[in-house]
């Protein structure tokens, strides 16, 4: 065995491909999609516009955006079999239900096996509209209600809240959801996008890749963090308990959820928009408690920040959803709703000049063992 083999556990710091989709400057805490700052997009854009930008590489003109929005709306349909699958699995975690439904869609949609670039664009667009429908329908069905039909007058974010709650959201609530989806839409070679690319590397179809991505997103080290942050906030209970909580976690060398990132050493630039959302919403709703506890955790983590440990996008996201009365187990699915355009374009980029992704593991197990028959063991 060669001794000069270098093992990069977790592929930390490894470039495996070139990309024209998004750029993360971890040291400066900057993120751009197709060259546009995330701050400009969060402040001025809509999710539909950002989805178009990601997929097509350019901001849309007004007629292009109108046509794209119309295409997304006309994709707001699900086969009856999907509602039946949701009903049969309704007591499961919403991420498990969502992943199962998307996997089933692969078998139900006529052109899901189309692995051309046009096929990926069409299937990605459909999944962008169908994934929020699945999450909302599950929430209705598990509460003994019928799914709420999509409202074709509403944009993507407002329609999702309408389907989820059965009531029209305020403009502020719809805009906050819209910004949340924009912030979550794309993030380079994160774990779920990477696994989606690995799947496409085998020449599998987009539904297979999105199913893989959903499975990968569900873990607490990735998309599951927002849910865990709110569990942590509930456990802490009030701001004055935050310091003791952090101290105990650090003493046990356990991670404080919502902090840390593989790439960012400065604060995740997406966090500031969510922080502002929680602060404003908490004030407006006369419930500033969540914001106060979160800020107390941030303060207690200050001594560790000099090591590059800062809040990530999911630190404040859960509190926004909590203030909107959205159950905790829907936080990861909400992340997934936003990420569909990112997964789609990552898969398309992989498809262009496709290559099998297949790294190596260095074998360190036993060697030259003599096989022992069953009766002699
Ligand atoms: C949308 C997203 O996916 S964002 C990430 C969401 N996940 C979370 O919020 C879960 C909590 N965070 C974590 O578990 C980690 O920060 C991860 C998994 C996101 C990144 O992990 P890594 O890239 O392996 O972390 P990294 O190598 O930068 O760690 C550097 C040091 O900071 C520590 N560290 C990293 N995250 C945390 C944390 N949340 N709390 C306390 N310490 C931490 C590590 O233990 C390590 O310390 P050491 O050098 O003494 O061993
Ligand atoms: O980039 C990552 O590793 C995780 C992340 O923040 C994301 O997927 O949005």
TrEMBL record:
Q: In which pathway does it act?
A: Carbohydrate metabolism; tricarboxylic acid cycle; isocitrate from oxaloacetate: step 1/2
Active site, renumbered: 261, 314
- From the UniProt record, list the reaction(s) this protein catalyses: oxaloacetate + acetyl-CoA + H2O = citrate + CoA + H(+)
Q: Which Pfam families match?
A: Citrate_synt
Question: InterPro entries annotated for this entry?
Answer: Citrate_synth-like_lrg_a-sub (IPR016142), Citrate_synth-like_sm_a-sub (IPR016143), Citrate_synthase (IPR002020), Citrate_synthase_AS (IPR019810), Citrate_synthase_bac-typ (IPR024176), Citrate_synthase_sf (IPR036969)
Swiss-Prot/TrEMBL keywords: Transferase
Q: A Gene Ontology molecular-function term?
A: citrate synthase activity
Query: Which GO terms of the cellular component aspect does the record hold?
Result: cytosol
Q: Which GO terms describe its biological process?
A: carbohydrate metabolic process; tricarboxylic acid cycle
Give the UniProt family note.
Answer: Belongs to the citrate synthase family.
- Protein name in the entry: Citrate synthase
The record lists the organism as Algicella marina
The opening ranks of the lineage are: Bacteria, Pseudomonadati, Pseudomonadota, Alphaproteobacteria, Rhodobacterales
């Amino acid at each position: 065995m060669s001794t000069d083999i270098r093992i990069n556990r977790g592929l930390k710091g490894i470039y495996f491909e070139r990309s024209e989709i998004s750029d993360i400057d971890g040291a400066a805490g900057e993120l751009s999609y197709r060259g546009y700052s995330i701050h400009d997009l969060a402040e001025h854009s809509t999710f539909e516009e950002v989805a178009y930008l990601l997929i097509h590489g350019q901001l849309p003109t007004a007629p292009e955006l109108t046509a794209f929005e119309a295409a997304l709306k006309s994709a707001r349909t699900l086969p009856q079999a999907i509602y039946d699958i949701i009903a049969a699995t309704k007591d499961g975690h919403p991420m498990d239900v969502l992943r199962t439904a998307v996997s089933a869609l692969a078998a139900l949609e006529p052109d899901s096996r189309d692995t051309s670039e046009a096929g990926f664009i069409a299937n990605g667009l459909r999944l962008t509209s169908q994934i929020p429908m699945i999450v909302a329908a599950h929430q209705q069905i598990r509460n003994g209600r019928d799914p709420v039909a999509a409202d074709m007058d509403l944009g993507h974010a407002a329609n999702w809240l309408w389907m989820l709650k059965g009531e029209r959201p305020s403009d502020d609530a719809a805009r906050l959801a819209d910004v949340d989806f924009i912030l979550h839409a794309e993030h380079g070679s994160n774990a779920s996008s990477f696994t989606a690319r690995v799947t496409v590397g085998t020449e599998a179809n987009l539904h297979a890749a999105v199913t893989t991505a959903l499975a990968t997103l569900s873990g607490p080290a990735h998309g599951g963090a927002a849910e865990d942050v709110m569990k942590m906030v509930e456990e802490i209970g009030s701001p004055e308990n935050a310091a003791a909580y952090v101290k105990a976690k650090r003493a046990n060398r356990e991670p404080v959820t919502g902090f840390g990132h593989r790439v960012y050493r400065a604060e995740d630039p997406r966090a500031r928009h969510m922080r502002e959302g929680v602060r404003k919403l908490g004030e407006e709703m006369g419930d500033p408690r969540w914001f106060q506890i979160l800020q107390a955790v941030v303060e207690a983590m200050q001594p560790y920040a000099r090591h590059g440990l800062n809040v990530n996008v999911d630190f404040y996201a859960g509190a926004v959803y909590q203030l909107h009365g959205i159950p905790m187990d829907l936080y990861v699915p909400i992340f997934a709703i936003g990420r569909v355009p990112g997964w789609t374009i990552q898969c398309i980029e992989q498809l262009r000049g496709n290559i099998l992704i297949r790294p190596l593991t260095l074998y360190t197990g036993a060697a030259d063992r003599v096989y022992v028959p069953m009766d002699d063991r």
